[in-house]
Amino acid sequence: MGPEFPMVTVSDWVASQARLADHLGIERWAAAVGGSLGGMQVMQWTMTYPERVANAVVIAATPRLSAQNIAFNEVARQAIRSDPEFFDGWYAEHDTVPKRGLKLARMVGHITYLSEDAMGSKFGRDLRSDDPQLRF
């Protein structure tokens, strides 16, 4: 399907989940639980189908991304697109995966997952090693 696959949203995913639940005969969830993007789906369930969710647990999620988060996501997408193995989205037809781009995108994403304290511990100005390459 490649780049011809349509753009989908959290609302689309939840609508498809609701259709699957209908097909399976599930009228109401005892609980919907999700973290991060899964948490966004839980919030969408409670807004779109409040009568179908008895309890909701949202972990580390937001109802709306900030402009900075959207920018980080765009950088991550560009990292993937710039990988020569991406082939304009037709990488499966070339029997490959844009691993370098995915690795960079994951690194960018990881920055957005960490708290300020965690970032300080991992990347703070305190020298963490005697490695001369780290002295700049």
From TrEMBL:
<keyword id="KW-0808">Transferase</keyword>
<dbReference type="InterPro" id="IPR000073">
    <property type="entry name" value="AB_hydrolase_1"/>
</dbReference>
<dbReference type="Pfam" id="PF00561">
    <property type="entry name" value="Abhydrolase_1"/>
</dbReference>
<dbReference type="GO" id="GO:0009092">
    <property type="term" value="P:homoserine metabolic process"/>
</dbReference>
<dbReference type="InterPro" id="IPR008220">
    <property type="entry name" value="HAT_MetX-like"/>
</dbReference>
<dbReference type="InterPro" id="IPR029058">
    <property type="entry name" value="AB_hydrolase_fold"/>
</dbReference>
<dbReference type="GO" id="GO:0004414">
    <property type="term" value="F:homoserine O-acetyltransferase activity"/>
</dbReference>
<protein>
    <recommendedName>
        <fullName>AB hydrolase-1 domain-containing protein</fullName>
    </recommendedName>
</protein>
<feature type="domain" description="AB hydrolase-1">
    <location>
        <begin position="4"/>
        <end position="115"/>
    </location>
</feature>
<dbReference type="GO" id="GO:0009086">
    <property type="term" value="P:methionine biosynthetic process"/>
</dbReference>
